[in-house]
Design a protein that fits this description.
299 residues, alpha+beta, Phosphorylase Kinase, domain 1, Transferase(Phosphotransferase), domain 1, 2 domains, five-stranded antiparallel sheet, three-stranded antiparallel sheet, 10 helices, 10 strands, globular
Amino acid sequence: MNPWEATHPVSLEKAKDKIERAFPHLKPIRIQACGTGFDHTVYEVNSAYVFRFPRRQLGYEAMQYENRMLGSLVKLNFDGGFQYPKPVFYKEAEGDDYPYVGFTTIKGNVLTEETDTDLLHQHAGELGVFLKQLHALPADQIDADTDHLHRLSSKRRKKHFYDIAQESSAAIPEPLFEKLLHYIEQLEEWENPTGNVPLHGDLHPKNMIVQGGRLTGIIDWGDAHIGHPAVDLSIGYACMTPAVRSVFFENYGEIDERTKELARFKAVFIMTVLVRYAKNTQDEDVLRWGLAGLKKSLR
């Protein structure tokens, strides 16, 4: 079975029917597809809300994490300079279907649809400030779990990392692939580091919204958790060249070399995952950003 295949697909017609029955005050709804992610099918409703329907079990779990984290951010009046979805609607499961949620919409398009893979360079400082403020929120007031997936453990992920790289090899130019293999082979094995800051948890180009050529919002908080800041700081390696990366870190604040090493590891890993996803789904947009991210993160 394709790992990205939906076990619970929700067509536009089915989504429209479910939303109108659950929230009749929205009728007559105007609905259009926004796209399909790893774990969710997404529709925009009445140009004001985005409804997310889990496509598989991991999507259902991610939806719960996301709803809890975003609810916490709203309660704390968090404003880091970029928009994030605000929870508005929640519908419990019906029959074999999963529950689903509705958030305020963030206008624009997904970053991977942009041709300029250096677009985030203009936002290096702003992203550093955004993450500095997010990570400074009081963890005891955030409804989120600790990192049970060991996202930064090279010891747990090294073999899987190598397997993903091999599966992606046909989509990666040979010189870049050799560089990736060398990085994995030379990778030391360490346990997952401890951390106690609130995190987005999955900050990469498919989870960012652009309008008018500028970054406007951060979406898909389904991997939100309490953990090590390097998980989020990986965006500085995945989408920025070394010179721009220094601006990002200057605005975030002082971090040690170990944190930078962990952030690079996360970036190389997630960019390889994106390339595999793009190869399996024949998504040329994601492939473009995944390959650009590998080049940047290995520099």
